Amino acid sequence: MDQLCIVTTGGTIDKIYFDDKSDFQIGDPQIGQILRDLGVAFRFEVIPLLRKDSLHVTQADRELLRAAIAAQPESHVLVTHGTDTMVETARVLAGIEGKTIVLTGALNPALFRGSDAVFNVGCAVGAVQCLPPGVYIAMNGRIWDPARVRKNREANRFEAID
Questions:
Q1: Which of 21, 30, 113, 115 could cross-link to 108 by cystine, CB 3.0-4.6 Å?
Q2: What pLDDT is attached to residue 115?
Q3: 33-71 burial, b for 16+ CB within 10 Å, e for fewer?
Q4: Cα angle 125-56-78, degrees, rounded to a multiple of 5
Q5: Minimal CA–CA distance to 26: which of 74, 69, 63, 81?
């Protein structure tokens, strides 16, 4: 892998807390800082495409993401995405020729102590380098086929479906 293309769409991984509003909003993409802090030994480019909670990602947004990924010269692409509709987006990305695409995110904001963001990003970086072309999800320490996974909102984790 010469260079990793990273496309960010928002989601919990990038959420920040505003005390005066008592709510969360999508902040700047966190993945670039995560990778710099880890001292990774590869080049990467971050393309901040969207800043949305995944519940607000539309079909048009998914088509925009698909077109943006298809237009990149890199064959290795990591996408940060909110977990609620990550599976739906991954399914839209299926069939992009010659690219290994891994979607990841976090169940807790990256800026929060104890967040799963760094672990998920690390898992996704390893996966994108080792897997054949296709679309995958890296969450909860596993690599998932988007056709065979769902988010269990009650348990707050991803799990296999039959």
A1: 115
A2: 95
A3: ebbeeeeeeeebebebbbbbbbeebeeebbeebbebbee
A4: 10
A5: 81
Does the structural domain 3-154 have CATH classification 3.40.50.1170? yes
13-36 per-position pLDDT tens digit: 999 876 665 677 888 999 999 999
List the structure tokens of 28: 């700047």
Question: How far is Cα 145 from Cα 66, in angstroms, rounded to an integer?
Answer: 18
Residues ≥6 apart with Cβ < 8 Å to 5 = 44, 45, 47, 69, 72, 74, 76, 77, 78
* pTM, two decimal places: 0.95
**5 in Cβ contact with 78 (< 8 Å):** yes
CA triple 58-80-53, angle to 5 deg: 40
